[in-house]
Design goal:
The chain is an alpha+beta fold and about 180 residues long. The chain has helices at about 55-70, 75-90, 130-145, 150-165; strands at about 5-10, 15-20, 25, 30, 40, 45-50, 100, 105-110, 115, 125-130, 170-175. Helix 1 crosses helix 2 and helix 3 (about 130-145) crosses helix 4. It starts with 5 loop residues before the first strand and ends with a strand.
Length: about 180
């Protein structure tokens, strides 16, 4: 578990959405409140989010982007090869970091241990210190509301920010509409 952030992603029927808060902490101090921990990759066809050290995020995002380019945007092949490379790299595998990557067809949680995890429901994934709060809220809102994917992400992250001291209300969201292939 990372005392750093909350990233939440939802691969819905109509859109794929990822959101994250903006808080960067060091120990029990807030260093920055408006960091961006999510981004689009591969010409805006892939969404990615990161929990862990900010400096490590840039390296891992760039590394994953290279695999996407090499695999011509095939997210499934890219996550497998990326995870192998991340695990084999003696420096990178020691990073206390996790990533979520998704498009309109797939959603994965990636770790330096070589884990490539597709969420049980295939739709909602969360990482970071507030992930359990955000994930619980998203599942409940999906089941018991008429909110769309983006609204569910925003509201769930707001709920997580109310509960997790390492998550704030400076929420940023990225969305993919329709088919990304």
């Amino acid at each position: 578990m990372f005392d750093a952030t909350t990233i939440l992603a939802y691969k819905g029927k109509n859109k794929a959405v990822i959101g994250g808060d903006g808080q960067v902490t060091f120990g029990n101090s807030v260093l920055k409140a408006n960091a961006t921990k999510i981004r689009t990759l591969h010409n805006g066809k892939i969404l990615a989010g990161f929990a862990g050290s900010t400096a490590d995020a840039f390296n891992l995002f760039d590394m994953f982007e290279d695999f996407l380019e090499d695999k011509k945007g095939d997210i499934l092949k890219s996550v497998i090869e990326f995870s192998k490379a991340w695990r084999k790299d003696k420096v990178l595998r020691r990073l206390e970091a996790m990533m979520i990557v998704l498009n309109n067809d797939h959603i994965f949680i990636l770790t330096g241990n070589g884990d490539v995890v597709e969420p049980e429901d295939g739709e909602i994934a969360s990482i970071g210190s507030g992930s359990n709060y955000a994930l619980s809220a998203a599942r409940a809102l999906k089941k018991h509301s008429d909110l769309d994917e983006e609204e569910i992400i925003r509201e769930s992250l707001s709920i997580a920010a109310d509960l997790c001291i390492y998550t704030n209300h400076n929420i940023k969201v990225l969305t993919l509409q329709g088919d990304t292939q």
